[in-house]
Amino acid sequence: MKGLQMIKSQLMIFSTILMVIVLTACTTKTNPEPISEPVATIRVQPSGDDVVRVGILAIRSAEAANAQYGGIITYLEQELDRPFVLVPVTQESQFELVEAGELDFTMNNPLAAVQIQRLYNTSFLATLSRINGGTFFSGLIIVRTDSEIETLEDLQGKNVTCVDQVTAAAGCIFQVFHLLENGIDPFSGFGEFTETPSQDNIVLGVLNGTYDAGFIRTGQLERMLSEGTLLSLDDIRILDQAEDDFLYPHTTDLYPEWPFAALEETDPELVEMVRNALLAMPEDHPAFDGIGANGFVADVDYSQLHELIETLQLVSWDVTD
Fold first, then answer.
1. φ/ψ of residue 277, rounded to 5
2. Which of 82, 55, 36 has its CA nearest to residue 204?
3. Residue 77 burial by CB count (10 A; 0-12/13-18/19+): exposed, middle or buried?
4. C-alpha dihedral over 95, 96, 100, 103, to 10 degrees?
């Protein structure tokens, strides 16, 4: 089992090998304006030995994470008759909090979840199933409809952005892997390859010309449309769109959805109760309304993520049993 220092060291190695260029995002040129979102607040409260702490990745903001996943935490609290607290975590802090033993459970994107599992021997209890995608999701490479970018090769020399170049799944790494499989190295071939933590801002940045292309997950465009953040999808085009029957249009392969995991040190009896409660959640439970889900599923195969991590030599690529 490797510690936090190993993570930081390998992050530096990964960045050096792939020549990651972290640049400041360009000033917005035209409307629509980017969405300003607060940084996730990392705190564990309330305190007490009986409080169960669930770290949930805050993709948009701490407030959004609570709004989207707070219902699941409330459900567990009621079912188990024990206090639970949702701890919003960032792409970086989720590793730190697991390393420090400040969480009992986690729920995050599968790329980070699998790397944490490889490093800290967490156990996957159940996988989120969404109404329109089931237990799978994918990544998109988007450009403006009127963009001169027609093929993956046209991305050479362009200004492209993603969420996080090491731990974001459908917000970056799925697309990076897809490009590498097609003979394109985004870290050396793009003119600029920046990080924009908000997928909302990635979409808006592509629309207003701040970026030539952006990486987002399936369902992102449809959610923004339903919320009114986007008025139409006519100005967005998906690059190298896959030809399959998956409900959402997408670019990359399909990968398993977010898992709910237990830390190695978590009480086994509590782990089993949480597992059973999650799998017993009815598909019409109101806790699922904010995330477009319809339940949790057991025994989903994550070997595809292990292969991706080892191929790209990400944080935990050289961890062995």
1. -65, -40
2. 36
3. middle
4. -60
| Mean pLDDT across 104-132 | 96
Contact 178, 238 (CB under 8 A): no
Longest dimension (CA), the chain: 58
Q: What is the 3-state secondary structure (H, E, C) of 27-80?
A: CCCCCCCCCCCCCCCCCCCCCCCCCEEEEEECCCCHHHHHHHHHHHHHHHHHHH
Nearest 5°: CA angle at 247, between 296 and 237?
A: 125
Q: Which of 68-77, 153-162, 223-232 is predicted with the least confidence, judged by mean pLDDT?
A: 223-232
Beta bridge partners, 259, equal 127
For β-strands 136-137 and 123-130, DSSP reports them as unpaired
Q: Which secondary-structure segment (H or E) carries 145?
A: none
| Secondary structure (3-state) at 10 | helix
DSSP 230-256: -S-STTEEETT---S--SS--SS--EE
Q: Which helix (H) or strand (E) holds 88?
A: strand 84-89
The CA distance from 213 to 143, in Å, is 5
Pairing of strands 159-162, 192-195: parallel
Q: Which two tokens stand for residue 119?
A: 């490093």
What's the pLDDT tens digit per position in 152-167?
999 999 999 999 998 8
For residue 209, report the phi and psi dihedrals to the nearest 5 degrees.
90, 5
The tens digit of pLDDT for each residue in 90-113 reads 988 999 999 999 999 999 999 999
Helices 62-80 and 268-279 cross at an angle (nearest 10°) of 100
Strand order in the sheet with 105-107: 84-89, 52-57, 105-107, 259-262, 123-130, 293-297
Token pair in block for residue 188:
């050396």
Tokens (6 digits) for 36: 């300003």
Nearest to 126 by CA among 313, 319, 298: 298
Q: How far apart are CA 153 and CA 292, in angstroms?
A: 34
Question: 39-53, 57-71, 152-166, 216-230 — which is least confidently predicted?
Answer: 39-53
